[in-house]
Design brief:
The chain is an all-alpha fold and about 90 residues long. Helix content is about 70%, strand content about 0%. α3 (about 60-70) runs antiparallel to α4 (about 75-85). The longest helix is centred in the N-terminal third of the chain and has 29 residues, at about 1-30.
Length: about 90
């Protein structure tokens, strides 16, 4: 019974993180296109202005902004290149 409860608790935690990770994307998809594009431009410009090159002082904020920016459907090759230094690298 304890193993079942432990597995259930782990599943809830994983589900919570997965839901939280998609919350920003859902919110973005619900914005009118003009507002979403304006927000994208502002976040892109802020990240470009304040986080290049990475300075250390704003690293946490830059990582959060990069993660948020990468969730926009407008995130093109320039966006991917801008956010890459702040995103967790994939490991095997």
């Amino acid at each position: 019974m304890r193993a079942f409860l432990a597995c259930g608790a782990v599943a809830l935690v994983i589900g919570g993180f997965a839901w939280r990770g998609t919350a920003d994307r859902r919110a973005l998809s619900e914005l009118p296109a003009s507002q979403r594009q304006e927000l994208y431009r502002r976040v892109f410009d802020d990240l470009d202005q304040f986080c290049r090159p990475p300075s250390g002082a704003l690293d946490d904020w830059c990582r959060q902004q990069a993660s948020f920016l990468a969730g926009f459907p407008e995130c093109d090759d320039r966006c991917v290149a801008l956010t890459r230094p702040f995103r967790p690298s994939a490991t095997r």
